[in-house]
Structure formats: structure tokens, C-alpha cells
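In the current project phase, our protein records have gained a C-alpha cell line. A sample record follows, to show the layout:
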Amino acid sequence: MHRLALLSLLFFTIMPACSGDDDGGDEVDADLVQLDDSSDEVFLTIRDLVDRGEVTIDETEASQMLSPADGESLSAATAPTFMWNHGSSTIRHGRATGDFVWLSITCPNLERPVDVIAIETESWTVDADHWAAITDAALASDSAQCGATLTRAYVDRDVVQDGPYQSASSPSYTITE
């Protein structure tokens, strides 16, 4: 019940910032790709729980990265397709309700992570603009090492009911020219 109260408070704190004129003040402060008409409010809710350390490490409940493989070298010349599974939950109904997966791609020198939120989709081919930003940032660093983190949560009307879950390890990738 304590989690529900906190999430309700978060929801009503976010809502004033999301309602109002189209003056640009309602933008999500992330480089967010929304698949399956996923709600940006769901992304903000899941991200807030993860940022507060309220994530459960559980290999059976967490989504798993299928490709690229951990340690794989990715060519800067070709944008990769990230593929994952959703994990064990099969309950889905609605776009603010469902089994959400959040993919967060990070690299040294990347201004902010590239975030992808999805309900049903289990893959995303990086578009040209995002791939250019990722490769430019990675190749400008000493390591050219990037990482990807998957977070899964079941959300009912913008309130996390189960999760968020992450795997104990997250894959990393080297970008090569």
C-alpha cells in the first residue's frame, strides 16, 4: 500500500507538468522512443522507481536482451537492432496498462541515454539520428564502450503493480569504425 501511495503522489506531481499549453514545457527530459503508443507517463513512473533504487533483481521476472550479445562489437556503419523478450508476465490490456519494457542505451560522451519504452514490441532498429549520436559519442571516447539496460514492469493505469525488474547484469558493446 505504501508503494501505491508514493506512486499516486508521483502521478499527481507529474500531471500539472504534463497538462497545459503546447509551449514545450511538457516535454519528457529524455531522448525517448515510444513504441506501441506507450505512455510517456509510464516511462517516467518506471524511471523514477529505478532511480530511487526500488528495482528488484530477478532473472526469472526480468526481460532478457537477445541481441546484440554482451561484448559484441557493433560497426558504426550499420545501425543495430536491439531485441529482447518481455519476461514472464502475459497480462496486457491498454496503453497505460500492460507489461512495459524500458530499454536504456548509454555511452560515454552521450548527452543523455537513448530510452525506448514498449508494450508488445520486442525489438528496435536504431534509427539514423540516434545511431549517429551513439556512434559519435562512443567513438569520441577512449573506450567506445556502450551499454544497454532493460527494465520490465507491469503497469495498471500508470501505476506500477509488479516490478520494476532488472537482470543482475546488463550487456555492453564496443562501437568500431
Q: What stands out?
A: The first helix runs from residue 2 to 18.
